[in-house]
Every structure is written in C-alpha cells, then in structure tokens.
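Design a sequence for this backbone.
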C-alpha cells in the first residue's frame, strides 16, 4: 500500500482513539462527581468539562473532601489526557494533509514523465475493465477519476490516478494529453464524453480517441466531435448475444480467446523500413513457418485492407499486419517488424 494512503489510515485511527479517550474521561468525571457530590448529571458534566479544560471553578466547586480529591484526579487527567488528545488530533490532521499533498506532488511528477501513454477518463464498469486489460499488457496509462474513494483504491494498486473532473481542460493537460498516444472516454454520461473528446482533440490533433456511447444516437455526435472510434456496450452486447444464440461454436471460440484459455491473442504490428519483412512476399517470411502466426489482414499505408492475404502478397513498408498467435510468437513478430531481429 502506498505511503500516503497508509498514513491517512493511521491518522484516522489516531484521531478516533484520541476522541474515544476524551469521551471516556468526560464520562468518568461526570459519573464520579454525581456519585461523590450527589449533583445532577448536568451539573456533573458541567464541572467535569470545566476541570478537563482547566477553565476553573467559578460557580460550582466540589464541597466535600472526597469531591475535591476526585477533582484533583480529574485535573491530572485533563492536563495529560485532553492536551494529548488535542495535540494528537491537530498533529494527525496537519501531517495527513502534508502527506496527502506530498503524494499528489509525487503523482504529478510521475505524470509529467509519461510519454506515449494512454489516458482513461472514468473508471466505471467499462473503464475498470479497460484498466485491467492495460495492466495485463503493461502499457503506461493514467486514470482521471473524480471519486476520491475509487481513486484511493487505484492508488493502493499502484495505478497512477488524478482525482479531478475529466471534462476540464486543465485536467487533461495535467495528465499529459499533448504527449499521450491514446485516450478512452469512459464517462457514464454521453454529453460529458462528447466534451472530453472535443477538448482532447483540440489539445492533441494526432491523439487516438475511443469513446463510450451509452445511447445509440450519441455515436454520430462523438465521431463528429473527434473520436476515432465509438464503442456502444449495449449494441455490442446485443451482437454477442445473437452470435451466442445462433452460432455457439463461433461464440465459444471468441470467448476462449478473450479469456486467454487457448493462449492466443490478436496483435497489430507496423512494418518499419529497417525490417527484413519489407519488400518480401508473405510466403517468403518466417511468420507462418517459424513463428506459427497467422496474418488475418494487411492494412496498406494508403488505407487499403487486404483480408486473408495470399502467400504471394508483398509486404511493404508502413503496412500494418493484423495477426493471431501465441503471446511469445507475437512478441517476436513485433520485433521482426521493427527490425530488431
């Protein structure tokens, strides 16, 4: 657990302990004065508070010797207990704020170093799944969440999070939207997502933006606002249910890939000029024979998409290969496409 969150929990415990000790001291004095002096509970409480706060007796002092002796005990408790409780509360609050500020500065410093990262706006049902997937791929990302409690949970998991309103321009600037590779607008409200997309597109024209649409009619508005792709969970859910109902074998295969039960995954790799793949026919490369990776499609630099390319299809610089295979083989393909091996 990160230090700021640990210290905050400790401070809350100390404040609670100090308040409990103070209440017990007041109860002890009130009951004692009632039994010894025979006063009503209201008078006993009044005298106890006077004693513990060292204000002194101006109108209702103890009259019996036993009462005065008991008052001495309560006075000693007041000097030590109340002073300790007050100092503990003040110290805990002040230090907790200082540690919280330190934690925010550390988070801000961490965010200032991010480059080619992803920004997730909102961590609801859709955003939380996206966070889990990005963690699994170990890609750098930052979350913008306006719920402090949910943000604290992410902090405990060592996830970089900014507690702020994602629709504000300064929030997007703070998480480095101008240096980011992509942004996901996962807020529950379509109007907020449109505003996030508009602001992010204005700050970074080259940013890859994927937005969530709660309503089907919001898809066109999000695309016009600048989103590259719009995901409507209700529509996707309906399509998946239709496939599961009418084509169960296809649905089971897709589910097994999503759940990583077969150890397979999809990947896209861009062919660099330094790669040995550039200029070669697909059959002449080690992609299928050695890596055991299947190239499903090739997207040319100009936008043309070749589905299920044949063996004599020539790979060109700038092509994006969409492939399926095992994780280690896809990693080797990525290195091969970049000219690393």
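Sequence:
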């Amino acid at each position: 657990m990160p230090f700021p969150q640990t210290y905050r929990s400790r401070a809350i415990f100390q404040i609670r302990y100090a308040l409990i000790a103070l209440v017990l001291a007041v109860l002890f004095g009130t009951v004692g004065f009632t039994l010894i002096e025979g006063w009503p509970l209201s008078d006993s409480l009044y005298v106890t508070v006077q004693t513990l706060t060292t204000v002194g007796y101006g109108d209702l002092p103890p009259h019996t010797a036993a009462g005065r002796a008991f008052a001495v005990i309560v006075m000693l408790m007041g000097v030590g207990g109340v002073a300790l409780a007050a100092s503990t509360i003040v110290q805990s609050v002040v230090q907790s704020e200082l540690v919280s500020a330190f934690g925010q500065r550390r988070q801000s410093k961490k965010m200032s170093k991010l480059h080619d990262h992803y920004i997730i706006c909102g961590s609801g049902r859709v955003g939380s799944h996206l966070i889990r997937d990005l963690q699994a791929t170990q890609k750098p990302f930052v979350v913008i969440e306006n719920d402090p409690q949910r943000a604290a949970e992410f902090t405990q998991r060592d996830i970089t999070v900014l507690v702020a309103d994602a629709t504000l321009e300064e929030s997007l600037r703070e998480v480095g939207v101008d240096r980011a590779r992509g942004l996901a607008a996962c807020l529950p409200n379509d109007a907020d997502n449109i505003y996030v997309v508009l602001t992010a597109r204005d700050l970074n024209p080259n940013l890859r933006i994927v937005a969530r649409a709660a309503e089907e009619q919001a898809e066109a508005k999000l695309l016009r606002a600048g989103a590259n792709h719009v995901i409507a969970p209700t529509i996707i859910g309906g399509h998946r249910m239709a496939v599961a109902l009418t084509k169960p074998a296809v649905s089971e295969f897709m589910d097994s890939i999503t759940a990583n039960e077969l150890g397979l995954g999809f990947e896209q790799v861009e062919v660099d000029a330094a790669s040995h793949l550039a200029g070669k026919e697909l059959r002449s490369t080690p992609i299928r024979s050695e890596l055991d990776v299947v190239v499903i499609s090739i997207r040319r630099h100009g936008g043309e998409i070749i589905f299920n390319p044949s063996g004599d299809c020539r790979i060109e610089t700038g092509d994006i290969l969409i492939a399926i295979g095992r994780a280690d083989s896809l990693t080797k393909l990525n290195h091969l496409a970049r000219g690393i091996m």
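Strands lie at 118-121, 141-145, 161-163, 182-185, 208-212, 229-231, 264-270, 294-299, 305-307, 320-326.
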